[in-house]
Amino acid sequence: MPHQDQGRSLGVPAIGAALEWLVAPEIFGVLSFRKDCSWTPSSLVRAALLWAWGEEGALTDRFFAARQTIARLHAGQHELVSYQAFVKLLRRHSTLLLYALIVALQRQMREGLARTYRVAG
């Protein structure tokens, strides 16, 4: 039915803006994957966040939903090929990627919310 996917696609620009705010490619520094890998650290983290935020019951269904969202955000981008490659890369690099994401979130909050973010007065 054509109306079933309309609610989810309405939030895509907001999700895209949140991902752009948090997961800029430069936060990963020189971290990269094998030369024959089409994933980038930024695309892997974006997919992982969408995967984690997904409302689908099965993990593979969440992956395919994340893939669809990324395709809507970045027309013509075909990086997310297989679930197995996604999980393998995530398992291998999650520690470094998570550290970079935490540092980026802390910096964004400190810089972007400096006027409204206060502790003890």
Q: What's the β-strand tally?
A: 0
Cα Rg: 16 Å
Could you tell me the strand content as a percent range?
under 5%
Average pLDDT metric: 78
Separation of the first and last Cα atoms: 53 Å
User: What's the number of helices?
Assistant: 5
| Poorly predicted runs of 5 or more residues | 1-7
- What is the H/E order? HHHHH
The number of domains: 1
Q: Could you give a short account of the major beta sheet?
A: none
What is the overall silhouette? globular
State the share of residues found in helices, binned by percent: 55-70%
Characterization of this structure:
This protein is mostly helical. The protein has one domain (6-112). Helix content is 61%, strand content 0%. It has 5 helices and no strands. The protein has helices at residues 6-10, 12-22, 41-53, 59-73, 83-112. Helix 3 packs across helix 4 and helix 3 (41-53) crosses helix 5. The longest helix is centred in the last third of the chain and has 30 residues, at 83-112. It is globular.
